[in-house]
Amino acid sequence: MNTLNLSISKTLLMARLKQSVIAAAGVTFGIAMFITLVSFMTGLNKMLDSLILNRTPHIRLYNAINPNADQPVNRSAEFKNALNIVRSIKPSDSRTEIYNSTAIIQSLKSDSRVVAVAPKVASQVFYNIGVIDLNGLVNGIDVSQEMKYFSFADYIIKGDAYDLNRISNSVILGKGVADKMMSQVGDVIHVTSAKGDQLSLKVVGIFQLGLATVDDVQSYASLETTQKLLGKPKSYYTDIQVKLTNIDDAPAVAKEYALRYRTDAEDVQTANAQFESGTKVRNIITYAVSITLLIVAGFGIYNILNMMIYEKMDAIAILKATGFSSSDVKNIFINLSMIIGFIGGVAGLLTGMLLTMLIDQIPFKTAALPAISTYPINYDFTYYIIGALFAMATTYIAGYFPAKKAARIDPVVIIRGK
Amino acid sequence: MSDIILETRSINKYFHDPVKFQVLNDINFSIKKGEFVSITGKSGCGKSTLLYILSTMDTDYEGELFIDGESMTKLPHNGLAKVRNEKIGFVFQFHYLLPEFTVLQNVMLPALKLGKFEPAAIEERAMSLLKRLDIHDQARKGANRLSGGQKQRVAIARALINDPVLIMGDEPTGNLDSKNSKIVFEIFKELVAEKKQSLLIVTHDEDFARTTDRNIVMDDGRMVK
After folding, report:
1. Of all residues in chain A, what percent carry a pLDDT higher than 90?
2. Å between A327 CA and nearest CA of chain B
3. b/e for B69-105, b at 16 or more Cβ within 10 A?
4. Chain B, nearest residue to A9 by Cα
């Protein structure tokens, strides 16, 4: 029964092959445009996001330098029930070290929401260039963790990050720092720590984040080297960086950690508030554009199929006159438009993929992202599923309504209307 | 079961556009099994309209219609389609073949829909019908490649494919030359004789009408004879 309807649909399609191909091309065009634009736009968005997010931990645990909230007057029994106001408190020489860091790292690693934990030691230094001392910051990092979870490798423009582990007293300089010191990979530079200790470091690489404030000031070294620079023991960490499975959890989890570990905890959303709103706006634009594209494509598909079916009204009347029921007619015409939807949709997905691959080949150089050399494309499979579902849904609707209308009327109305 | 195959009870029909106008006025008649009935009348007297109602293709009427003892008036669309498929063969004034299909496919489609026989058996039967109408050599051609007379004969073969109890024709020989008209007429007569099928033919052809068992004359929406 249904195979009969299907073969009738096929014959009707093949008989007017040109018209069918044009109808399918309408679907193809709409879906291809959707795939291309959405992949490209979200690719650009992701690139912009990664500009900041790649090197930013979702949560950063640290000890901020603040005046102690627990002033001696509060401990005095005499003023226990009084309102004590102490003006102009200065922060004491409190440690920027995170207390009990080893235990905290252990505890974080067992948290199911956490993907990775990477400790860090930040140290103020002076880069010595002849008689000039240049202000700077050396970050002591766990190289393998940074490479794995914070895409450190993407930003190394010269040298090899793993040399930090292999060569003792080695450093990776920011591009701006290296330029100012006129040092290349393999050179030895001298730095002075904030406490006055001097150390020679071998340059094993140069990084570029694309943010001048970072590239002109910072450099990276291994944890051990930085600890040595500061004259601190092995468990001395100033920051613990945490990467979560879900970035949106960061503000809540940060609050929880601040309480649990009694440190300061900063989440990425707070740290980059202005960037967050930028992302939000870009996402809204992406959604608006993709919905508009889908609606426009949908109307195109609907129009073409609608006209095609109205042209076949004669066939509907004849089929009904010879004993095909309303549901058969509906079935035949829905089959017809679904075949067009399927073929056009698949062709559209493929065309969209080809177009995005083409865009992916166009050179795009930016100092901010050394790892990127062509326009970014987001090959997210979800968009292909959305595209496929949409093609099928619109062609179904485009087939359903005229078919339903045709199925309801008496065949004689069509015949007499001639 | 009685031997009445088609019966109408006071059928009235109106056209509403542009003004209300009564096309059919109190039509009461019946056709017996194996009877060959012709309807004649001036053009515009409502004979085609009546035929469309009798063939269940038009449901916008008052009164009641029985085919093979069953009331058609309350039947849903799908039920009517089944009746048309199984019991009625219809030949239009203009052939109304599906141009997308071959001649053979056009003839086979109603039988494939009925699904009583295997496709191979249906094809064989369709070929024998086409042979009888002398167009079997055109069977594999596209339906739109035939001449008007040939198309009309294909339409007749299509009407006969399911062995309907009732065959209706709206000027089925109107587009045929006298030789082909004669062939069609002979076939109609044989059918009535062989298979006890009933025929109801609307025609202009007075000679044709005279040779049928019964001739109904219509005028101004009424049966006058």
Report:
1. 14
2. 7
3. eeebeebebeebbbbbbbbbbbbbbebbbbbbbbbbb
4. B100
Residue B132 belongs to domain with CATH number: 3.40.50.300
In the three-class reduction of DSSP (H, G, I as helix; E, B as strand; rest coil), residue B184 is classed as helix
Is the distance from CB of A352 to CB of A36 less than 8 angstroms?
Answer: yes
Q: What are the contacts of A8-14 at 24+ separation with CB within 8 A?
A: A8/A319, A8/A332, A8/B109, A9/A332, A9/A333, A9/A335, A9/A336, A9/A339, A10/A339, A11/B100, A11/B101, A11/B105, A12/A312, A12/A315, A12/A332, A12/A336, A12/B100, A13/A336, A13/A339, A13/A340, A14/B100
Question: Would you put residue A104 in left (φ > 0), alpha (ψ -120 to 50) or beta?
Answer: alpha
Q: Residue A244: beta bridge partners?
A: A114
Kindly report, residue by residue over B130-163, the tens digit of the pLDDT.
888 878 888 788 888 887 778 888 888 888 888 8
State the DSSP string of B117-178.
S-HHHHHHHHHHHHHHTT-GGGTTSBGGGS-HHHHHHHHHHHHHTT--SEEEEESTTTTS-H
Could you tell me which residues come within 8 angstroms of residue A17 by beta carbon, excluding any fewer than 6 positions away? none
Q: Is the complex ipTM more than 0.90?
A: no
Helix (H, G, I), strand (E, B) or coil at B57: coil
Whether B113 contacts chain A with CB within 8 A: yes
CB nearest to B98's CB, from A4, A315, A416:
A315
C-alpha distance from A321 to closest chain B C-alpha (Å): 7
Q: Considering only CB atoms, which chain A residues are within 8 Å of B109?
A: 8, 319, 322
B90-121 pLDDT, tens digit per residue, is: 888 776 888 888 888 888 888 888 888 888 88
Tokens describing residue A129: 């260039």
- C-alpha B145/C-alpha B136 separation (Å) is 14
Distance between CA atoms of residues B73 and B69, nearest Å: 12
Residue A1 confidence (pLDDT) = 44
Cβ distance of A323 and B110 shorter than 8 Å: yes
List the domain range (segments joined by +) for residue B141. Answer: 4-223
Q: Where are the beta strands (DSSP E) in A22-155?
A: 59-62, 114-129, 132-141
Which pairing describes strands A239-244 and A114-129: parallel, antiparallel, or unpaired?
Answer: antiparallel
Distance of alpha carbon A152 from alpha carbon A221, whole angstroms: 12
Q: What is the pLDDT of residues B187-223, one digit of tens each?
A: 777 777 777 788 888 888 777 778 788 888 888 877 7
Report the C-alpha gap between B191 and B163 in whole angstroms. Answer: 10
Q: How many C-beta atoms surround the C-beta of residue B133 within 10 A?
A: 21
Domain count along chain B: 1
Cβ neighbours of A415 in B, within 8 Å: 52, 57, 92, 96
- The structure's pTM equals 0.72
Nearest Cα residue to A14 out of B186, B102, B185, B130: B102
**Testing the interface with B: which of A6, A322, A326 to mutate, by most B Cβ within 10 A?**
A322
H-helix segments, A152-238: 163-166, 175-181, 212-215, 223-230
Q: Find the residue in A nearest to B82 (Cα).
A: A323
